User: Which sequence fits this backbone?
């Protein structure tokens, strides 16, 4: 095979990585639990520390299945900035991202990326991270924010060939910083019979350093897996009995309406989401959290005509029942506080019944 040096950073490094996340070798970063990646945004905007306006952008911003913020900067070997300048550049990105980005910001960026890049929903992309994630979607992005604020981040330099001085600098930084992983992925490229072959190799981690870093990770276990464990959550206990009774009323009604109840993998809050697989297999119209909040996500219901019909009917009936919805309710996620929605729980249940009935009638008519 013939070795190839990259000439076009965008096409030969960034675009290749965007199509193949596994070029960030998760199994080399952690052989015990290989990293899996959720792309938050390519060209992630980074605010200026003085004005707060968007000034720079990091090539890629990922989260792994542990909600570890991962900054990835790509550089060609022949780019002289691939030496020491790139290190200061990315550290500045990380410092300002830590200061300005919230969990909601990250979630909003990831939602747009899922729609524009993959023509799917964030919920669908999130579900592919794996069944072992101990988070609801909301808790996952809260954990990402917590890690950012605590300086628990990963920095990856992605080059097709790394200069020796950068390898030495990465190894030194990784030994000195306890909560920051500084890694270098050398993605050497070759040509053979008209094909481009990319071989990624990780630098910056010895087994000793890996054990030290692994010890900094918090063990995370789901707090709710049925109604009894959900009801025992400390946050739910802080609500009054009437509010808890109305949450239970909605839960029981969803069960009667033959919903598949999916328990959120939240480590702090706990949640349940009713899904009707005949409408859309991997999306729920709403989630109820143990702090009493109700989150509606009509934007997830778009993968089929039945899902779209259901979402439109449900939104229409909710509005008729007296619960206000924002103008962009079909395009975004939004949340009611416990008092706002439980006072209209009967109207919400009625809207759910009508939407399910209408969707099933339309489906039956289409089959005739």
Assistant:
């Amino acid at each position: 095979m013939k070795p190839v040096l990259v000439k076009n950073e965008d096409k030969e490094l960034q675009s290749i990585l965007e199509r193949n996340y596994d070029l960030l070798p998760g199994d080399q970063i952690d052989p015990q639990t290989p990293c899996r990646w959720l792309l938050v945004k390519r060209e992630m905007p980074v605010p200026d520390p003085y004005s707060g306006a968007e000034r720079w952008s990091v090539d890629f911003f990922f989260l792994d299945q542990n909600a570890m913020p991962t900054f990835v900067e790509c550089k060609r070997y022949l780019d002289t900035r691939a030496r020491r300048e790139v290190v200061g550049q990315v550290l500045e990105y990380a410092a300002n991202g830590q200061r300005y980005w919230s969990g909601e910001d990250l979630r909003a960026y990831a939602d747009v990326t899922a729609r524009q890049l993959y023509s799917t929903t964030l919920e669908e992309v999130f579900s592919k991270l794996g069944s072992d994630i101990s988070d609801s979607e909301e808790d996952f992005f809260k954990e990402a924010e917590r890690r950012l604020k605590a300086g628990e981040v990963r920095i990856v330099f992605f080059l097709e060939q790394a200069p020796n001085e950068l390898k030495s600098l990465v190894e030194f930084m990784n030994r000195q910083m306890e909560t920051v992983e500084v890694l270098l992925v050398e993605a050497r490229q070759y040509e053979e019979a008209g094909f481009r072959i990319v071989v990624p190799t990780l630098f910056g981690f010895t087994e000793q350093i890996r054990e030290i870093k692994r010890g900094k990770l918090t063990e995370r276990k789901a707090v709710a897996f049925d109604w009894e464990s959900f009801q025992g959550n400390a946050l739910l206990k802080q609500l009054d009995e009437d509010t808890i009774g109305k949450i239970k009323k909605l839960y029981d009604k969803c069960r009667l309406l033959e919903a598949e109840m999916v328990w959120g993998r939240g480590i702090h809050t706990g949640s349940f989401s009713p899904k009707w697989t005949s409408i859309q297999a991997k999306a729920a119209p709403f989630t109820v959290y143990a702090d009493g909040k109700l989150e509606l996500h009509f934007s997830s219901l778009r993968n089929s005509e039945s899902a779209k019909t259901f979402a439109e009917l449900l939104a229409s009936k909710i509005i008729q029942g007296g619960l206000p919805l924002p103008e962009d309710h079909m395009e975004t996620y939004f949340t009611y506080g416990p008092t706002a929605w439980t006072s209209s729980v009967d109207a919400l249940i009625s809207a759910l019944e009508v939407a399910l009935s209408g969707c099933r009638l339309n489906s039956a008519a289409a089959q005739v």
User: Anything to note?
Assistant: The mean pLDDT is 83. The first strand starts at residue 2 and ends at 4. The two ends are 59 Å apart (CA to CA).
